[in-house]
Design goal:
By secondary structure, this protein is an alpha/beta fold. 36% of the residues lie in helices and 15% in strands. The protein contains six helices and four strands. A four-stranded parallel beta sheet has the order 2-1-3-4. The longest helix has 17 residues. It is globular and about 50 Å long.
Length: 183
């Protein structure tokens, strides 16, 4: 999954955003569980984040949620981190699946994309060019391709990101993660 808790920590530790609510939207239950595991590790390492536990409903319902496309409806947060994690096949094209590819799956994406009150951060393992929407029956693939294309080329005026822009750069995350792996 392309979620990095560095982002969450950056938001929580930044004096300008520490009181903002955060939502992490993923595309399936397996990814949701993986994000919860990472949050648990974060809490184990630093007691400052101990109130973020997903089973502490009183706190987490106000400050942080991690939800998948199927259960994000009705929930909004100040900052939404959209984590789009799909692999590529041998042909280099994205292998889409999960709720997005089910009947009316495109509606789930539309709902998820509208959960942010102030800012949305999109992290993705694929780009718009990686999606061949013609091989899918519903509009979910096309909508995801359009969404990613917009995110990649966004010309909307926006305020400065809540994170340091040098750390909000995809190349930064790729370099850091490859370095951690010894490359």
């Amino acid at each position: 999954i392309p979620i990095d808790l560095f982002l969450v920590k950056g938001i929580l530790d930044n004096p300008l955003t520490k009181n903002k609510s955060i939502g992490i939207v993923v595309f399936n239950m397996k990814q949701q569980d993986a994000v919860y595991d990472e949050i648990d590790k974060l809490m184990d390492k630093n007691s400052n984040y101990s109130t973020l536990t997903h089973w502490n409903e009183e706190v987490s319902s106000k400050k942080l949620f991690v939800k998948n496309l199927e259960n994000v409806q009705g929930d909004e947060r100040d900052i939404i981190i959209m984590s789009i994690g799909f692999s590529k096949g041998r042909n280099g094209k994205a292998e889409l699946g999960g709720p997005l590819m089910l009947d009316k799956g495109e509606r789930r994406l539309n709902v998820a994309a509208s959960r942010s009150k102030e800012e949305m951060i999109v992290l993705s393992t694929i780009r718009a060019v990686d999606i061949d929407e013609t091989k899918y029956k519903n509009a979910g693939a096309k909508n995801l391709k359009d969404f990613l294309s917009f995110a990649e080329k966004s010309t909307m005026p926006h305020k400065e990101s809540s994170l340091n822009t040098s750390h909000n750069d995809l190349a930064f995350f790729i370099k850091r993660d490859l370095t951690k792996l010894g490359y």
